[in-house]
Amino acid sequence: MLRFLATLVCAGLLAGTAEADDDRAAFVEANVLGIFYHELGHAMIDLLDLPIFGQEEDAADVASILMIDLLWEDATALDLAYATADGFYAEARRVDADDVAFWGIHGPDAQRFYNTVCLFYGGNPESRRDFAEYMELPTERAETCAEEYDLALKSWGAAFETLSDLDGAKLTFQSDASGYWVDFLAAEVAALNEHFTWPEKLTVSAGPCGEANAWYDPSAVEIRFCSEFVLHLDSLFVP
Q: What residue segments make up the domains of the chain, in order of their start?
């Protein structure tokens, strides 16, 4: 299985600083990255015509945590896993238990939190035991995480290999916004272009949308990341 090492340096993630502004930026960047990888999962499902046995949103979540594990060196991947899992935890805390949208296409945020923790832990249980303990992953779930990771990698691995071997189109980036998160997203697109190509042109765009959201649009073959979503992520950060 291919293992890629990204060259990006997230503000705060590798800086070794405890300053609040850097920690906040690192949290936002990590969650921008996790959401972007999630939308790339949707794009892969569409453009590679992948069979999905279950909820597509769950499959895209799995793709996201696998990319964090495969695309980053271990120490940075660990920081990213902490931050993205914390993002789901913060979302879950904002919703009263009686208001959880069990009818929605996304799983409940608390479940997405545990799935993220379990899959990342399952990628290397020996070295990530402290991660699982700190995130209070129940022992009953932890026992299955290595198997869950292996199954996820078996399912998504062929798609990653295809993008790596394909002589196709590069991602293109465009923005009608500015800010550190835009620069970060643009740099990540450039880094991914070192590893993957696509069956057809796939655009990544950033800017205002009128809502806190991000999505993959199959009709436009475009991933849109909204400025409002970044403000929402910023509001989730707890110093």
A: 20-236
